[in-house]
Give the backbone structure.
Amino acid sequence: MEDPVNLNFGESVLFNNADQATTDLGETNNNDMDFQSSLLFGGVQPQPESEQVNDLIEVEYGQIQPKKVKLFDGKVINLKPKVRKSINADEIKSSEEMDLIDMDNLFRIAKEKQAFKDNQEQLSEQQTKPKKKFKTSQVWTEKYRPKRFLQLCSAGNDRQYRMISHWLQRWSGVVFNTEYEYNQLNQHQNPHNIQNNVDQLGRPYRKILLVSGPPGIGKTTTVHLIAKQLGYNVEELNAANSMDVLPSTVNTGDNRYGNVNAALKLKIQNALTSNSIQAQGNKIISNGKPTCLVIDEIDTAGNSSDIIRVLNELIQSDQRALNKRGQPSGKKSKDNLLNRPIICIANDAFSTNSRTWGGFNMDKLRSISELISFQKPAFIKRSTGIKTGGKALNSVKEYIKDISEQENLKLEYNEINEIVEICEGDIRACINHLQFNGRKLENYVSSSPKINKDLQLSWFKLTDMLFKRDPQLNKEQDFDNLMEILLSGGGKSINSSSGTLDKVIRGCFNRYLDTVYYQDDSLVKPCELSEWLNFYDIIGTSNEIPQYSNLILLKFWQLFSEINPKKIVKSLLPDIKNIEFESNEMKKQNKALVKKLITNIPISLKVSLGGGFEDNQSMGLFVLPFLYKILFPELASSGSSNSLQVKSKNNLNDFDKLCLEKSASLFKSLQIEFETFKDNETNQLLLEINPNLDSLVFYDNDILTFNPKQIQLKRKWFFPMLQTEFDRITIQSKTVKRSITPETKNQSKKTKISSSVEFFKGQYDGISTQIQKPKEVDETSRIWVKYNEGYSNAVRKTIGWKDLWIS
Amino acid sequence: MSLWVDKYRPKTLNKLSFHESITKNLGALASTGDFPHLLVYGPSGSGKKTRVYATLHELFGSQVEKLKIDVKTFTTSSNRKLEFNVLSSPYHLEITPSDMGNNDRVVIQDLLKDIASTEQVDFTSQQKGIKHRFKVVIINEADSLTRDAQAALRRTMEKYSSNIRLIMISNTTSNIIPPIKSRTLLVRIPAPSVSEISQILNNVATKENLKFSVNEESEKLKLFEKIAINSSQNLRKALLCFETVSMQNETIQLSTNLIDLDWEIIIKNISRLILTNQSVANLSKIRVIFYELLAHCIPARIILKTLLFDLLESCESNKIEDLVSIGSTFDNRLSLGSKSIFHLEGFAAKAMVALS
Amino acid sequence: MVSEVERSARNEKYEQERIEHTPWVEKYRPKNLDDVASQEHTVKVLKRTLVSANLPHMLFYGPPGTGKTSTILALAKQLYGPNLFKSRVLELNASDERGISIVRQKIKNFARLTVSNPTKEDLENYPCPPYKIIILDEADSMTNDAQSALRRTMETYSNVTRFCLVCNYITRIIDPLASRCSKFRFKSLTNDDALARLQYVANEEKVEFEDDVLNQVLRISNGDLRKAITYLQSATRLQNTTTFSDEDMQIDDKISVNTILEVGGVVSESIIKNIITTIESKNSKKIIDGTKEIILQGFSAQQLLDQLHDALILDDARSSITKNKIALILFDTDRKLSNGTDEHIQLLNSFLQISKVI
């Protein structure tokens, strides 16, 4: 709740800042202006002229005193604090269309509007021709935050939006009431889906949704919107400051736990159950909407490990409660059941920043949650071959264009293009850029080719400039021009933001080979350039004389610029930008893999493999490639036949048996697990190992090719064999319990063993998405059903007759 | 069942197979129940760690093998939490400074102070009746310690010399400051010779009952020697390689192809590209390959080194000198700079010019 | 009371053990100025201050192991005696925190203290001048900020405190500080002085050695007496323990030249000779193989370069132009090595380059 005085005041400060370079010229006008303005507001004491800007701040809030405000053209006006009464109801209606009437928000908006309007009135009264209007003090990213689902900019993530909304919808059964559940299930969703992803309460199988993706593409916005749309009250736990008191939207007084340091768990549970009391009374109180807990920035939170631990406990207690419920004898205690959705948002679902005893936090979270990853619109995923590029980028551009129109920026389409390019598809960055640089860009377009010193150059433009010589100028002049840009003006701004120069240089680096190829195809220039790149690298790392690092750009120009650069039709390095990006990403990913694997290795082996722990070079160099080959031995007796016939250990000869046993024991000691993974694009089930060494071991280029199909084929018969081997070991030791599949206790071991072969057999037959017919009837008239086969979350569970008849 | 590297690792001094004199010296040191700070150096895969552990075994008995890993957290001055692993037994602990990044000075000092302040009481090993009033701290990759940390260590080593013994393990002493060198007993461990490696492989083969297509010892040794040379006398690599070979062939043929690592093959190919066709188009092809190698966690300097030696093998002898000098320049650049792709491409370009 | 006796006995034993473990360098630190080897001029000046009990701020500089720290410690001991020493002298080392904050707090606090009164006894035996001494060892590794913070402190409290900066390189001390101190240069020890000192230590410790050993020790330690004594101790230890464990074996318990070389991490002469012949053969294949062999032997490249330098540059048979060129190559390699580059490549490069000019 902002006080109106406060708001106005804040604004005046803003204005002051915008005009710090007030000249004496401006001051001289003050007298006159003061006089006028004091006329406007009765009872105003004119401020002495000599007073400094600083004094303004000292004006007391309580007294109704006008604020003296300097405008950016040096004029000074007085602002009068606004009183609440002045808000006009009509204005509210006309200004905003809202789905949900959020009174606080409305008031705030109304007040702001009023304030602006008044300001502008004053301005227009006093100034005959105002140069520019400051329409808003609001940051555009907030201003243009989509208010409705349909307003969301798709940015290539439509499918993800739908997935979130589907996931949330499944909760509605539990959250709103039970009757509704059945109705909805019967009407809207086919039973097929239910079987796959929903537990017996109609909730999604995985109770936590983990949304991941690069910053600025609207994860938080989307989640908030969808949750609101579906009638939830969003409770946000901002992981970065979750130690503080939560900004609560629920006025139930549940968040009274001052310093919640120790009560983090209580807090999460509170958030989750705050409305359950109301729901249990079987009547839904109108303003008490159910809560949807959103945990933002979970990967970077200082206490993320605590949060994740709490989440884990929640899930486990829920699982227990569910099992109890499944049993007819069990008490019907609903206490532990999770009945509110939890959504976590992270930038990097594979982050390995923080680690606790049991391994990496995010790994734990990933295993208990449904994963939805957003993608940057700009990048094309090479491995799948499916381009998310064009359409997604266009939608972002449309969105930006919309804003620019609303703000009257009059941006051309190609300028928008450039903005999006600069920000690499980060929508938030785009909007920020638009707000603060929009006008400068405008300047740039309108100004003559003569270089404006203040202009802000985008790295994109600059790269172009370096490769193209101005035909009207001779070489020296052009060089001087360029130097001027680089060493003063625009170049300086490039310099000051270290990222930009790097981008320019990378851009040039990615491009120069093509240019050389068409120019003379000699290696002299690349050699010369390598010296300069070295210069740039060294200067860049020394951090002392960065101003010289710009000079390398001149070298680029000198070596490669042409008056009429040929349009490069077929680049030598197709897609180089992506290759570079992917290489970096993959390196990071692989490093994390190595790290994870090393933490899992038994200690004695770790010592034997030598070196340090985390940064072990030899690991990636030769240990892992060899290890991989040992893990997946070529079983000679199986031959090259990759037929899908079920192979069992008995068919193998002695040597292969030995290999198999060794491989299995290694799998166990390194804690490598199997996972089935569903490829979203091709809809195929892939067999993977976790941690997934594939990306570390296999290369894919002209020299060595990597054939995923063959590997998959091999795994299809190899994994089951390993599985049986595991089971054998398990029986022998009788202590190891597999962690992935939470076994219910009433399952006898016998059934498990006898069916584990069938289990995998079933997998090749019909891949898993179909329901199996009930197989055998137990004497206690319970039915065993293969459930969710082929997924790593496969679990067998009891289903009553009732459940079957309903569908 | 474990990997052979682990399975056939000697645990005690008398089982160590090569470098007799060093082993004897270490044993002699251990038998007095005390030793000075040690700096153990030598190429990788020459058995530095194994020797150190065997010495500790001699000193403290089998208790040293009861290893566990602790994750210690350390809050830096900038209030950032730093986590690193400490491998420890009741008698020693082992740290790797590269885990700690630039804070290694503070971390190590803190850690050592911590250990030093808790004096080891009544560490009476029953059989020998020798008291060990000290705890051993092993510092891995000591050459990656920052200068700062090393400078701090020199004083610390003296200050806590009554209850801490440092054993530093590194590949080279070039990056270790002279004051440290002068305060430690230097133990150089050369790489095992080809025949020593093949002897070890032979032992393993007999113990594992491996089948060979030939029976004569001398013939087998030829194969082992091939492995030893192929793994550039790195015992660890040789053992892994041998194990892989044995997993893939039931009876090991003498002519069995040794397993070439994928990245080595790829770098060989790059060298072929450079040798055969020096053109811009080729350079661009090579760049893509470089990117892929980097993505697979192959360090840029290893790429450069392997590429250089591959080139040396097959180029004319009058070019050797130029190539090496280019290589040394770019190796220097790689270790100073941070943008490895620039330098790798620069090397490829210059090598092409030198060869054409 | 028995336990009391026992404990004291144990303490005594412990103390004894501790002494055994103290490095000889500490054990044989000169106790008074007369013991300090080789630095006649400095000692003469400082002795005068003993009489007059007036001391300027001092700056000791010179190569390592020439007795800088020993001198100031000895001087302080002679000035104050053992009792007063603790309260009057503050010794700070590079490994102690020495950022600007320490200068501001610890040093300033100590400097500011008024001097404690010496006991009568001390007064009779020692000069006990009315000021404290702060010894800043390894002062060249202090940051410039810390050094400038020291300027003011030195002046303000000069009535009660004297500073003594000890460093290897005077160029790393900022000028304002250097100008406030009277400078003493410590030159490298002459061979005779060092030898005499080494002989003395060896006699005290009853070390037996082969004839040439002491000279060898001095040679590899380059006039650094501390290094020399440390080497001697390490070698003794290695030698002693070996005889201890293998009683039946025929080992003469004298320290041999080889042991010293191994302890010093020095590459043996024969290997160096081998390298030089390989280089002189000018056969690049041979050089490549030779380099590989050396690398596998695990020798330190920097050490190797040092010795190669001595062997090549001190060889009078070569013309001075060649020597010039070689020195340049060696310098370049050394520079690259200290950047942390790959030893194999750099050694190979330098060998090939040398083979070209030789």
About this structure: The first helix of chain A runs from residue 4 to 18. The mean pLDDT of chain A is 62. The first strand of chain A starts at residue 67 and ends at 70. Residues 419 and 433 of chain A are 7 Å apart (CA to CA).
